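Help needed: design a sequence for this.
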């Protein structure tokens, strides 16, 4: 096994911490009333069936509208599950428009696994 480049590892994990969050961290941000916008990028029917409290729904095809997001708040994006790339794709589009973004790893599935509260429309 070759020696690890620890500087490269440091940079990688610093980037990971800057752009990814988890359900526990998001729950803490909600509880502390931090100035964030939670963005559910799933289909509207799935959003209506259950979503993270306070989340707005901005499904694919609507990302370009930036509806409900602001440049002075970090948008915390989530999709279905860990293997779904919708939130990452939305992050590219929103960040390109100047919106600060973070992806919640694990998606809505990870939120549910923690038995955190869910809103339904």
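Sure. Designed sequence:
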């Amino acid at each position: 096994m070759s020696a690890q480049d620890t500087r490269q590892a440091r940079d990688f994990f610093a980037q990971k911490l800057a752009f990814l969050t988890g359900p526990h961290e998001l729950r803490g941000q909600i509880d502390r009333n931090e100035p964030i916008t939670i963005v559910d990028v799933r289909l509207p029917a799935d959003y209506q069936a259950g979503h993270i409290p306070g989340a707005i729904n901005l499904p694919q095809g609507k990302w370009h509208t930036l509806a409900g997001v602001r440049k002075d708040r970090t948008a915390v994006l989530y999709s279905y599950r860990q293997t779904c790339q919708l939130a990452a794709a939305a992050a590219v589009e929103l960040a390109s428009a100047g919106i600060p973004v973070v992806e919640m790893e694990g998606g809505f599935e990870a939120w549910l696994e923690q038995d955190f509260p869910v809103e339904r429309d």
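The mean pLDDT is 96.
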